[in-house]
Design a protein that fits this description.
The longest helix has 19 residues, at 49-67. This protein is of the alpha+beta class. It has 3 helices and 3 strands, in the order E-H-H-E-E-H. It has a 3-stranded antiparallel beta sheet with strand order 1-3-2. The chain is globular, with a radius of gyration of 14 Å. It has one domain: Recoverin, domain 1. 51% of the residues lie in helices and 15% in strands.
C-alpha cells in the first residue's frame, strides 16, 4: 500500500489548487464546508494537503452525482 505524503499548504497554495478566494475559503470554514487550517505558530497557519485533497474529491463526486455522471474510483 502506498501512503500519500502529508504536507502543509499555505493560503496562497490553497487558493491556487481550489480556485477559490480567501474570503470564500474562510466563509466555507465557518459553514463547516472546508477544512480548517492548522496552527503552525503564533502568526502562521496552513492546511493539511490530504484534507484539501479530500474536499476536492468530495466536490468532484458531488458534481458528478448532481449531473448524473457515474464516478469511477
Amino acid at each position: 500500500m502506498t501512503e500519500q505524503l502529508r504536507s502543509f499548504l499555505r493560503l496562497k497554495q490553497v487558493k491556487a489548487v481550489t480556485g477559490m478566494s480567501r474570503s470564500w475559503i474562510y466563509d466555507a470554514i465557518r459553514r463547516g464546508e472546508f477544512p480548517a487550517p492548522i496552527t503552525l505558530g503564533a502568526r502562521a497557519v496552513a492546511w493539511d494537503s490530504i484534507a484539501v485533497a479530500g474536499w476536492q474529491e468530495h466536490r468532484v463526486r458531488q458534481s458528478c452525482k448532481d449531473c448524473g455522471v457515474r464516478w469511477r474510483s
